[in-house]
Structures are given as C-alpha cells and as structure tokens.
Amino acid sequence: MDPKALETEAQSAIAAAGTLPELEDARVRYLGRKSELAQALRAVRDRESGMVLNSLRDRLEDTLGRRRAELERAELDRALTEDVVDVTWPGDELPLGHLHPITQTRRQIEDAFLGLGYEIRDDREVETTEYNFDKLAFDAWHPARSPRATFFLDDRRVLRTETSPSQIHALEERKPPIYMVSIGRCYRRDAIDATHYPIFHQFEGLAVDRHITLADLKGTLLHVMRAVFGPDRRVRFRTHYFPFTEPSMEPDVSCGICGGAGCRTCRYSGWLEMGGSGMVDPRVFENVGLDPQEWSGFAFGCGIERVAQLHYDFPDIRPLWEGDLRVLTQF
C-alpha cells in the first residue's frame, strides 16, 4: 500500500462528498474496519510504519470532521431559507388517557348528591374497631368482627369494611342537620367472583334532621338510581337487617345484561343488589350523644363497582380491577 497515493485518493473523495450520506460512504471506504488503511494497521510490525499510518489516519479523520461540519452548516442554512413552517397548520393529535369507569361512575354519583345539597367526605381507610364496629352498634357476635371477614391490622385497628365510620365522625364533629356522603375504598375478605372483590369502592350517605321518614330515604335513593342508570331501570326495595339501621331495606336494580330475564350475573333473579339502607338506629344516636327523640335520619351504602357494572352493563366486575386497556378504553 502506498500511503501517499491512499491519502491523495481519500482527501479527494472526502472533498467531493456533497451530502452527509456521501461523506459517510467515504468514511467507511477509507477509515472503516474493512478499509485498506485498517488492514495495513493490523499488519504493522515495526514502529516507523505504525507512526506513518497512524499519522495518515489522524489527518483523514481531521479532514472528515471539517467536511462534516461544513455539510451540516450548509444543510442548516438551506433548511432555514427553504423550509417554511405554517404555524396555523393543526399539529399532531397526541394520545390522551381518560377516566377509569369507576372514577366516571363516582363523579356521576357525586354530581347527583351535590345537586341534592349533600356534602362529600373522604375519610381515613385505616379505622379503629370503635368506629368501624362499636359506635355503629355492631353486636359482639356479628360475623363482620371475625378475622375471616375483616382485615385486622392489630387488636384495635382494621382496614375499614365500609365507609360508615364517616357517619360517626360527622356526627361527632358538629350537630345536625347533616347531609353527607362518604366515598372511598373499602376492604373485606370476600371471595372474588362476578360481583365481589376484596377491595371495592363504596358511597355511604347520612341524613340527620328533624322529622325525617323512611319515605325520604326511598325518594333519595330513587332519585340517585335514576340519575345514574336512567329512568328505564326498575328499582325495588326489600326488607333486611343491618346493625346500625332500623328498619332496614336493600335496594335492587333490574339487571341490564338480561333485561330482567335472568342470567349468570344476576344469578338468574333478574335483579342486582345495590347495598343497604335504613333509618338510623337510636343506639347510634346515643353513641354520639344525640337524643333519638329529637333527631331522626337515614343511612345508606352502595358499592360503586356494582353501580358501574349496572351502568355499563358489565357482566363481571373483575375486568374493572385487572387493568386491561382493551376493556377500559371502551368507556
């Protein structure tokens, strides 16, 4: 290999490159791993030959760098003079997220109660057994007190099983009249199935005033159910038992999956249970220092996942917790 001839040829090729791709071709040809110069450097066995070839490589790399800077500057000058940007042209639409179906349902519920003049509360999720059970008049034998039904952190602290403790906090903070709804996560040792999950969201309401009756409770729940599900869904009330209400009843909404004919989701009954409700038990008033002869009220609680399931006609609540975007982006 003649170093002088190679340098003359390489310098000419670099100077003749009119674009960055052409310059890259020249670099690969004369300075790449398979180039004649690279092969000669690998075969060097004496100091003088190595110095000559390394000096040649340095000169070519220097020339290559200067030519690259010239071409980049020329390209920039061309772009600044020739490329015109229309600032009025619409930009690319960026992909945006959206609210989870549970959040959408929660906001619908909040709007319905705010329209009735209720306040919205969001209380603590770790509660004491005093507020989660005792002050809500849960008897000592009640199954909810069992570690098989409730997540106990220690002897006196639990993950709240419902948002009902918010009612006690509200009654202790100020005197009636009180109209409030507590919304948040709850925890129970439930087996996972189409309508149950160990973590769920609940909205719990309380109204305490003078001369409140069971008819006020039914009217309130009917208004909220129709606001969320629409006027076509049927609602019924069944008598039931709850420790902190007397009398008590459960609201059911007709199943939208089968139209009330019966399916796996509604266990072939045509109805889906929404939660519990009833008139506040006098013992609850006494636990917070209120006279049950002077004050009356009602309380209710429903699962938001159950509401979302009915609102969007989900056959199963599990997809709401699985995070599959193929499902969630449909709503």
Polypeptide structure, described:
The two termini are about 70 Å apart. The model has no long low-confidence stretch (mean pLDDT about 90). The protein has helices spanning about 5-15, 20-30, 35-40, 45-80, 100-115, 130, 165-175, 215-230, 280-285, 305-310, 320, 325-330, and strands at about 120, 125-130, 155-160, 180-185, 200-210, 235-240, 245-255, 270-275, 275-280, 295-305. Helix 1 (about 5-15) packs antiparallel against helix 2 and helix 5 packs across helix 8. The chain has about 325 residues and is of the alpha+beta class. The relative contact order is 0.10. It is elongated and about 110 Å long. The chain is built from twelve helices and ten strands. The strands form two sheets. Strands 1, 4, 5, 6, 7, 8, 9 and 10 form an eight-stranded mixed sheet that branches. Strands 2-3 form a two-stranded antiparallel sheet. Helix content is about 40%, strand content about 20%.
Task: Summarize the topology.
Blueprint lengths: L2 H14 L3 H12 L4 H7 L4 H36 L18 H15 L3 E3 L4 E3 H4 L24 E3 L5 H9 L4 E10 L11 E11 L4 H16 L5 E8 L2 E10 L16 E3 L1 E6 L1 H6 L8 E8 H9 L6 H4 L2 H4 L3
Parallel strand pairs: 1-4
Antiparallel strand pairs: 2-3, 4-5, 5-10, 6-7, 7-8, 7-9, 9-10
Helix pairs in contact: 1-2, 1-4, 2-4, 5-8, 5-10
Q: What structural class should be given to the helix and strand makeup?
A: alpha+beta
User: Into which percent range does the helicity of residues fall?
Assistant: 40-55%
- Classify the beta-strand content into a percent band: 15-25%
Strand tally, please? Answer: 10
Q: Return the average pLDDT rounded to an integer.
A: 88
Task: Tell me about the largest β-sheet.
Answer: 8 strands, mixed
Radius of gyration: 37 Å
